[in-house]
């Protein structure tokens, strides 16, 4: 028995070699997309970020129609540049909901005042837990969730005018 | 000419390492004793030659000799001289040359100073060191030549990665490499001892100082690297579980375990196979780390230009050395006798527990670092982040620290549980009081930081206990070393726990003239932004005036820097150290409305993390000096006795 145990380190090392040799031979891409595309939204329930307005939960994203979930923050400067595009989406009747990352109510109110408020609901994700569970690594990011709560699309970074057709198409495909 | 001289030195050193291997092999065969005396000088000469080759490269960088490809690609005439100097190892080829230099210089040092090891084991050790060197010389000469010339000489160089242009970083890689590659000595000792079947207390006593030296450098290197990441990357964190950070942590964990198991082997002749295994694992982790960084297998801030061919080359070397050592281990170690038995409740018992815990932590870090690649090989996609590492390692580390506190209170061989609980009463009481105070006055701390803050004071007190009731002037230096190193762990733990329990963070966009509050009673006023020009960069610098509870204000000037060559934006944080923590400010981008993004933190007692790291290394140094002094005294006494005996004989005749 002891004799066999002595070969265990070598076997572990051979396993290591096999893994890295494969990884070296087939290098992978580097963009970090969420592993959850095509999967149901993870369960969560966030309190309202603004008083007197709704918060956000996974339940609220399973209401039969697709929704656009924007992950943003008042301290995030790129988020300001996509405010106009989000407003445009809301004007076209696409429901936009927000998840505010590590934010404070006063800062958020000032942000919405200054840049417009396309959100029908905003959840406060103070410790980034929901964001991380979603597989999102930064702000801003935008997800499209279909009526059954399945994540269909992920956009990383601010939405520019050039991204609008793809977002609208993804929304329509989710219907 | 200078570059060619450097290349020639490198070839000569490689030839000597081949000679060292062959001579060592011949010396171990029957009738080869004549070779014994040549191997030592060859090892020393090899160390000197490769050292000179490395100095040549530094010279080329200082002169900004743009006809050398490496200099043209990584240096720039406008760069401050310190970064020209450090630029020599701030790139792939140069850092591999530094790697080989440390390897050969360490081998030369063993040849020069090692007098305790059995002659045949020493020769086998030097041969093993030469064998490792040979592979890496081949790698340098055939796949990463640092002295390669350019036919078209450019007018100006490309410059050094701006993230690396920092005084702390100029010396972080050499320090880390001394530890990282210095631990190769332990590997070669283990291989040498397996070849000659010489695994005993004398071997352990010979190996211990070499492991200690490497471990001290490794500890300092990791501490410095952590502080660099903290202030240079601008995210306020001090450990990111980046693959390369893990690559330096893994050899440290193995070397720490080795340092403790070698003590059991030296004192009680136990844990022989285990000690050999750890010595092999420690340096294997260094090689695996080098491979991870240099192959570009895992993306990291530390990866230089990536070339898959180099990855295959290093992978081949890994297979040869680690595989070879593990086969030798499996075949030979069963012939090694096990040492004296011991009870579970004993100093050895605690050291075994410490070793097992360190190994489990090492395993978890290893798996976490490579798991994304394993999953990818099986067709899944996962990323393993800080939340995994913190969750799985933190509880074990706290348990480990408790065992560390108890260990020195126990007697060798066997101890009574009752007497241990008596000795541990005061530390446990202190921890209990701390816990009560925290729950009363600082509610809402997460479970892990709370556990850390509770355990740290008790462990600090417990690590002082070995001095209790001793004559402090006659206590050996290595006991002080242990006490200070263990105390350093407690201090560091307190810093980590305080940082994660009490840090106040504020992310905000401000216009000049606006103010904001940061928890801990700080008022921050954003006074102005102004442009600043450096030797090879321009920046916008923000001026922040910060006061605490209305007291005297201090000024911080974080800046956002743009380097010209290579073009790159970095964020230079600005930090004020107060007695009870650090205030940390980093400047981000601006928007079209004239607002600037700031990241502000108040980090109570965060400095303890690095203070603890320095204490750990200092404890190691005391321990090293203490061991060497005791040995020298031991030799003197032995010599004195040898003289005294004939005198006595003469006297009795008279």
Which terms would index this structure?
heterodimer; A: 175 residues; alpha/beta; 5-stranded mixed beta sheet; two-stranded antiparallel sheet; 35% helix; B: 654 residues; alpha+beta; 6-stranded antiparallel beta sheet; 4-stranded antiparallel beta sheet; 18 helices; 11% strand
In short:
The complex is a heterodimer of chains A (175) and B (654). Chain A is α/β, with parallel strands linked by helices and 175 residues long.
Task: Provide a descriptive summary of the structure in words.
The complex is a heterodimer of chains A (175) and B (654). By secondary structure, chain A is α/β, with parallel strands linked by helices. Chain A contains seven helices and seven strands; from the N terminus they run ααβββααβαβαββα. In chain A, β4, α5 and β5 (122-125) form a beta-alpha-beta unit. Chain B is an alpha+beta fold and 654 residues long. Chain B is built from 18 helices and ten strands. Chain B is globular. Residues 644-654 of chain B have low confidence and may be disordered. The chains are: A alpha/beta (175), B alpha+beta (654). Chains A and B meet through α2 and α3 of A and α11, α12, α13, β1 and β9 of B.
What is the average per-residue confidence, as pLDDT of chain B, rounded to a whole number?
A: 87
Note the main sheet of chain B. 6 strands, antiparallel
Count all strands of chain B and give the number. Answer: 10
Q: Over the alpha carbons, how many angstroms does the gyration radius of chain A reach?
A: 21 Å
Major sheet summary line of chain A: 5 strands, mixed
Q: Give the termini distance of chain B in whole angstroms.
A: 73 Å
- Strand fraction of chain B equals 5-15%
Note the beta-strand portion of chain A: 15-25%
Head-to-tail CA distance between termini of chain A? 62 Å
């Amino acid at each position: 028995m002891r004799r066999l145990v002595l070969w265990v380190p070598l076997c572990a090392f051979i396993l290591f070699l096999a893994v890295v040799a494969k990884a070296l031979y087939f290098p992978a891409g580097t963009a970090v997309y969420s592993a959850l595309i095509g999967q149901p939204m993870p369960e969560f329930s966030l309190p309202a970020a603004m008083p007197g307005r709704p918060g956000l939960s996974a339940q609220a994203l399973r209401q039969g129609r697709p929704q656009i979930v924007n992950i943003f923050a008042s301290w995030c400067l790129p988020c300001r540049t996509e405010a106009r595009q989000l407003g445009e989406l809301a004007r076209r009747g696409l429901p936009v909901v927000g998840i505010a990352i590590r934010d404070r109510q006063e800062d958020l109110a000032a942000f919405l005042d200054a840049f417009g408020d396309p959100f029908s609901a905003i959840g406060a994700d103070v410790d980034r837990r929901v964001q991380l569970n979603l597989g999102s690594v930064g702000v801003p990011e935008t997800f499209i969730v279909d009526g059954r709560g399945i994540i269909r699309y992920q956009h990383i970074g601010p939405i520019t005018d050039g991204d609008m057709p793809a977002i609208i198409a993804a929304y329509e495909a989710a219907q | 000419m200078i570059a060619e001289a450097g290349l020639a030195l490198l070839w000569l050193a490689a030839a000597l390492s081949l000679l060292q291997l062959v001579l060592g092999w011949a010396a171990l065969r029957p009738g080869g004793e004549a070779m014994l005396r040549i191997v030592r000088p060859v090892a020393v000469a090899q160390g000197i030659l490769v050292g000179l080759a490395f100095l040549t490269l530094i010279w080329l960088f200082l002169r900004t000799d743009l006809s050398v490809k490496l200099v043209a690609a990584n240096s720039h005439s406008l760069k401050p001289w310190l970064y020209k100097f450090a630029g020599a190892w701030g790139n792939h080829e140069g850092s591999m040359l530094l790697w080989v230099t440390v390897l050969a210089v360490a081998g030369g040092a063993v040849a020069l100073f090692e007098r305790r090891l059995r002659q045949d084991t020493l020769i086998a050790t030097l041969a093993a060191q030469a064998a490792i060197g040979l592979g890496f010389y081949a790698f340098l000469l055939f796949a990463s030549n640092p002295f390669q010339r350019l036919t078209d000489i450019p007018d100006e160089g490309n410059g050094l990665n701006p993230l690396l242009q920092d005084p702390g970083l100029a010396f972080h890689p050499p320090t880390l490499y001394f530890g990282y590659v210095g631990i190769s000595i332990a590997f070669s000792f283990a291989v040498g001892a397996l070849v000659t079947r010489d695994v005993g207390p004398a071997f352990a006593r010979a190996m211990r100082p070499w492991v200690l030296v490497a471990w001290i450098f490794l500890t300092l290197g990791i501490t410095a690297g952590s502080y660099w990441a903290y202030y240079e990357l601008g995210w306020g964190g001090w450990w990111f579980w980046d693959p390369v950070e893990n690559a330096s942590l893994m050899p440290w964990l193995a070397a720490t375990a080795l340092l403790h198991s070698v003590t059991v082997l030296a004192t009680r002749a136990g844990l022989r196979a285990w000690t050999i295994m750890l010595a092999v694992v420690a340096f294997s982790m260094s090689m695996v780390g080098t491979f991870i960084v240099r192959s570009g297998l895992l993306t990291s801030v530390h990866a230089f230009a990536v070339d898959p061919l180099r990855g295959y080359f290093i992978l081949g070397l890994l297979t040869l050395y680690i595989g070879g050592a593990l086969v030798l281990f499996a075949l030979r170690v069963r012939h090694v006798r096990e040492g004296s038995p011991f009870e579970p409740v004993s100093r050895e018992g605690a050291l075994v527990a410490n070793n097992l815990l360190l190994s489990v932590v090492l395993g978890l870090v290893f798996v976490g670092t490579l798991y994304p690649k394993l999953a990818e090989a099986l067709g899944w996609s996962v990323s393993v982040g800080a939340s995994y590492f913190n969750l799985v390692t933190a509880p074990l580390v706290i348990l480990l620290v408790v065992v560390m506190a108890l260990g020195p209170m126990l007697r060798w061989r066997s101890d009574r549980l009752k007497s241990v609980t008596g000795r541990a009463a005061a530390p446990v009481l202190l921890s209990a009081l701390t816990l009560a105070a925290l729950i009363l006055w600082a509610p809402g701390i997460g479970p892990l930081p709370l556990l850390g803050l509770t355990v740290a004071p008790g462990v600090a007190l417990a690590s002082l206990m070995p001095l209790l009731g001793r004559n402090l002037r006659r206590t050996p230096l290595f006991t002080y070393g242990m006490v200070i190193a263990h105390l350093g762990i407690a201090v560091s733990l307190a810093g980590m726990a305080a940082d994660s329990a009490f840090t106040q963070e504020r992310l905000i966009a401000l216009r000049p003239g606006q103010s904001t509050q940061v928890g801990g009673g700080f008022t921050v006023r954003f006074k102005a932004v102004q442009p600043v020009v450096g030797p090879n960069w321009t920046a916008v610098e923000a001026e922040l005036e910060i006061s605490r509870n209305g007291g005297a204000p201090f000024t911080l000037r974080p800046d956002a820097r743009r380097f010209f060559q290579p073009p790159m934006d970095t964020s230079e944080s600005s930090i004020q150290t107060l007695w009870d923590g650090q205030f940390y400010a980093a400047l981000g981008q601006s928007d079209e409305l004239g607002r600037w993004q700031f990241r502000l933190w108040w980090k109570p007692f965060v400095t303890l993390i690095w203070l603890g790291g320095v204490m750990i290394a200092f404890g190691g140094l005391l321990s090293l000096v203490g061991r060497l002094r005791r040995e020298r005294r031991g030799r003197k006494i032995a010599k004195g006795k040898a003289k005294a005996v004939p005198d006595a004989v003469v006297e009795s005749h008279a």
